[in-house]
Amino acid sequence: MTRTLIRNRLALVALGVLALLLVAAAFSPLLAPDDPAKQDLLARLKPPAWSDGGSLAHPLGTDQLGRDLLSRVIYGSRVSLLVGIGAALLAGVVGAAAGLFAGFRGGWLDRVLMRFADIQLAFPSLLLALAIVGFLGSGLWNVVLVLGFTGWVSYARVVRSEVLSLRTRDYVTQARATGVTDLTIMRRHLLPNVLPPLATIATLHIAAAIVAEASLSYLGLGVPKETVTWGSMLADGQLYLGTSWWVAVFPGLALMFTSLAINITGDALRDVADPKAYRR
């Protein structure tokens, strides 16, 4: 498994990018050169340090209020990772539980859960998230809750399909014959076997949740305006693309490279979890 991952150089680069992102999010106060909310109107719309008129005091330039862009990009990673990981954990727990019960128990429970999943899939996820956030109101934990709720279906369907094939295995039949409870069978025998596909889905869901959070913040329906996010930075910079491109480009690049690195890592995890990957 490790050898397969090491041979994938692109995945190693993606893991390196994610490691840097985690360090930036964890140590933002130490790494950021300035307070991300500090305004300096005399230094507004300063270009990056390598451009004419730029300064090393603001390596990536400043925005329309004179705030340091590098500091804001670094602090924005905290919200993106918190929302992405939080939404993936919530959706994974709910979806895995629903898929386990639906696949193992079957019957009316399976039909009800899967029909509910089909109804939710009929609505575009971002449109559904916009409607729920509009009802609940903006806020960090509301965004995590909404993105977790809209993402559980993928986990449930994959886990259900895996459990349908596993529940007829000999070790499951033997466990039921010896009087082992259904909850114990699901916890000990079924859940460990569905963890690899769950990990792959969770990785891809983190990237999707980060992009969704940026979209909501761009529309003004995400986290509060005073909280630094890449989406709100994109919204602030769209008016200056013709004159001060860096205000929108750098948070956009951070969002793009983060999503790309997470997706590449998810693909690498899928290849590692696939038994065919070990064949030469």
From TrEMBL:
GO terms for biological process: transmembrane transport. It comes from Streptomyces coryli. Keywords: Cell membrane, Membrane, Transmembrane, Transmembrane helix, Transport. InterPro entries: BP-dependent_transpt_permease, MetI-like, MetI-like_sf, OppC_N. It is found in: Cell membrane. Residues 77-266 form the ABC transmembrane type-1 domain. One of its GO terms (cellular component) is plasma membrane. Belongs to the binding-protein-dependent transport system permease family. PROSITE patterns: ABC_TM1. This is ABC transporter permease. Its main location: membrane. SUPFAM superfamilies: MetI-like. The chain crosses the membrane at residues 79-104, 116-135, 194-219, 239-262. It is a multi-pass membrane protein. It comes from the Bacteria. Pfam families: BPD_transp_1, OppC_N. The keyword Transferase does not apply.
